[in-house]
Structure formats: C-alpha cells, structure tokens
C-alpha cells in the first residue's frame, strides 16, 4: 500500500527539495499553465526547489546574522553610499537570477517562443520564500520595475529594462520602489519630493526625502516626485528612474547601467561616480535582514522620467498589483516552510511515551495549518492567473501593434479580454495580500509554539520565520489600507459582478456526494455575501469603511471555499485515473476534497456548542492524507459527520 511522507526521517526542514514536497504549488501550476508550459517549467522548478532547499537556505541563515552594512562615507569623508554584502548573499543572488526568476517572465527563455506568465516568477518567489522572505523583496521589486518599464517606457530606458530582465548575473541590475515619505506614509498624495528639469544637463533632478527604501542601492530604483506646477495629490505625481550611479559621470565604469558585473569587477563606486543622493542609515529591523532598508535624501539626484508626466500614481498601481501578489506568494512560501518544520518536529519530538504527532490535538493543529497553507496558495494563484492573463494579452497586443498588424482588431481583442480579467483581479489582489500576510504571521507563530522553548531561540529557524513574517501584513499596504482598496475596486470597477458570477459558476460544477454538505454551506454563505455587498452599496461611506475589513475576509473565505470545492470536484471526476491499482484508494484527488471540506468547516460552518456535541472525529481520519499526503480511504469521503445532539 502506498504511504505518505514520513516526516520523521528528516531532522529539520532544510537539505530538502521544496518543490517536490509542496503539493499545493504543483496543483495550482498544473491548473494555471498550459500543458507545454508545465512540461517546460517542472524540471526547472524542481532544480530551483533543490537549490533553495540546500545552498540558499543555508546562506539565508548566515545572512540573518551577518546582513548588509552601510558605509555612507569613504575614508576622506566623501559620500559614496556603499552597501557591503556578505559573499553568501551574492551567491544567493546569482543562484536565483541566473535561473530566470525574473527573466523568464519577461523574455522568452531557452526552449520557448514567448515569456512565461507572470505567475511563473511568483511561483519561484514562493519557493524562494521557503528560505528567505527578505531576499524575495529585491527580486519582487526587480520584476515590478521591469513591468513598469515594459508598459510605460517609450524606449529611452531600454538599457535599464534589458538589465532588469537580464539572465546573466553580470549583466543584471536590481529594482526598487522608493515610495514612502516620513510625512505621508500610505498617503502617497502627500509626497513632497520635487522634480526639476535641468535644461543644461538634460536630466531631471530630484530633491526630497524617502523614509523606507528597501534595496536601497538598487540601480533600477523607481521613485515618485512632483514636477513644477503639478497639481497636489496623487494626480500631480510623476514616475522617475533614479540610478544608484551617476549616469553623467565619467567615473562610472560603464556607459550604461551599473551592473552586478561592474560592482564585482570594479568594486564600490568612487564618490564622483555616485548619484546625488545620501543614504543616511539602514533601519535596524526586526527581520528580513537580507534586504537593506534605509533612508534616502535626494540632493539633486539625476533621474529619468518614465513615460509621461503626472502619470506616476497610475504607473505605481500597476507595479503594486504585482508587488502585492509577490507579498502573498512570499507569505504562502513562508507558511509552507513553517508547516514543514512543524510536521518534522512533531514527528521527532517524544513526550509521554510517543511522538507528539500521534496525539489528537497536535494532529488537528497540523491539519489546520496545512489547510490554511493550501487555501492561501489557491487564492493567491487564482489572482496570479488573472494578472498573468491580463498582462499576456496586453503584451501580445503590443507585439501585434509593433509588427504593424491590424491595430484596431488587436487593441479591441486586448481591451475586451484584459477588462474581463482586470475587474476581478483588481478585487482579489488586495484581498490576497491582506489575508495571506495575517495567515503567515499566525502560522509562523504557531510553528514556534509547536517547537516549544526550542522554537523561541535562534538555534531553530522558527525564530527567523516569525520575525520575517511580521513584515508581510505591512509591506505594500496594511490590512486597513488594503480594505479601503477593496471598497474602491467595488465602487469603481463594479468588481462584485465578476466576483459573484465566478463563485456561482464554481459552485454549479460541484455535484459529487462527498462535497454535498460543504457545497450547501458555501451556497448559503454565497447568498449572505451577495446580501452584504448589496447592503454596503446603499450605506454611507463611514459604514462602508467600518465594514471593509470584515468584507475582505468574508470574500476570501467564500471565494476560496468555492475554488477548493471546484478543484475537488474536478479531481474526484478523474478518480479512476488516480486510484492505486493495489488498494483502490484515492491518493490526491480525495485529498483536495478533504482539504475543501475542512476549510469550509473551520471558516464558514456554524456548529452548535462549537462542534463539541457533534462527536465529529473527521480531522483525525484526515491527518494522514492531508498532512502526509497518504492515501484516502473512500469511506472517509463517503462518511458524513454525526448529527449534533
């Protein structure tokens, strides 16, 4: 008989191929990718999962204790803005970027005729975050900066785009987004940084301060600033690319962007070759040590306008869509590592004569941690599918226009298809980031508790996982900020329409008897969600804001439940193809059904006396298939919970 994973054979969650152990990511990518895309991607993701689980994971632990250091001045007191990185971090950079973590989504990789969908960079960031959420930050911003230039640059910054998307490490630059200012925070419209055009030099020059600047020494930094006579608020902001190096200096080692290869070959820039900005200090952060975050003062920094003036906020929101999904993918990856570490520790830790994963309470906890991880992954990659669909459609339309194809037909097709995906994506993206960030903190916190006192000390990775997880609800917008964005999506995009249509379509596919009770619960909550949306449409702004966070979490719960049930239905329909010939037991399709039922039971079901009077022990029967991936006894699927007394 086929058995599940024996967590007890591992000492800890490293020296492991994370791709091979991560069932939800594989399941989602099989759903998102075409068959040929998955066939191409699978061996590369397997290779990357092996690298992350070994070299990158080992380096990440070292970097946590020996992170980047800022040397703002040289020996003569001249500003040179040098950030010194440990060799282990440079190795991680090379290992990730040269395997296409950014490049594959923007330039056709070897063996393919066009780039992979944006979901591919998110999948690789997910795996990377098993080892280091901090390192994922510069990767995500490099992809985000590339997306902005791809969509809005008129060609003047093609050298920077090519460097952001370079496959060879020596040709690469990284991206960043300097958005937050001390006086404004999330109120981007309050930004005070000014941009003045220097007619003689042919450059824009920026003056102002940026308060939180992650990946502070990036060569491909994007920043918002207000040009002369521009209106107040977000409408007056323009986007600029601000290099780390001085693009006008004769001292810069190369004519183009200051690449990773230039840094390695020539060492730190001389003061005359540094752009006119001052890196004041690096923040002393709780976690995410791998990414240097600091304060920057622009003192006439040379900058390039991206696209048109006063379009910066619009351009920034395009980048934010990807950054928020990167945040969600990182949260899912961190949750995967936390669940893995917990399962391994529980399988090895003995107490009262047995390993603690033999006890009912721990089994139930590990089931619920696993279900939360898989639910977060399903929602995140559904949003990623929509973003990928939209960007690929627009990219193909631009290519058709460039090839002098039928411009009107191409644009009409692109507009229609992109609009269909955009409205729902616009709603799901902030919700994905909002919910998964909180789930990552909760999962990392409980992983520490599973380890007991050991989890609270630096000798175990749970300490770093929790410290790193704490930033995920903060990066790219807090829960409150994102909840208000959900309201904007509903008001401006009528996003409730595709939301309700999609949930209804998913539920209509669910007919298997094993899913009947859960589907009935979700159908009732679907009606309640529709009523909640209708209520908020008629209430005043104050009440809408008061309800916004509850609504965002409610949408996540109902949408995810419908998504998981539809996936379970599809799997159960293919039951005969996946049953073990020896035992007749379902191996994976039935597992998704158990996950869907457990998610509905914990998030949507209202049970008398908190379910204590029900006599329900399904979670114990589900432990082997859900946590270890073992076979599913058909009797578990056919069983219904005992009635409440």
UniProtKB/TrEMBL annotation:
Family matches, as PROSITE patterns: ACYL_COA_DH_2 (PS00073)
InterPro entries, per the entry: Acyl-CoA_dehydrogenase-like, Acyl-CoA_DH_CS, Acyl-CoA_Oxase/DH_mid-dom, AcylCo_DH-like_C, AcylCo_DH/oxidase_C, AcylCoA_DH/oxidase_NM_dom_sf, AidB_N
Every Adaptive response protein AidB N-terminal domain range: 15-170
Acyl-CoA dehydrogenase/oxidase C-terminal domain sequence ranges: 311-399, 417-490
Cofactor(s) this protein cannot do without: FAD
Pfam family, one: AidB_N
Manganese keyword on record: no
Entry annotated with the keyword Oxidoreductase: yes
Stretches assigned to the Acyl-CoA oxidase/dehydrogenase middle domain: 176-247
One term of GO molecular function: acyl-CoA dehydrogenase activity
UniProt region (Disordered), positions on chain: 242-275
Alphabetized UniProt keyword annotations: FAD, Flavoprotein, Oxidoreductase
Family: Belongs to the acyl-CoA dehydrogenase family.
Protein's UniProt name: Acyl-CoA dehydrogenase family protein
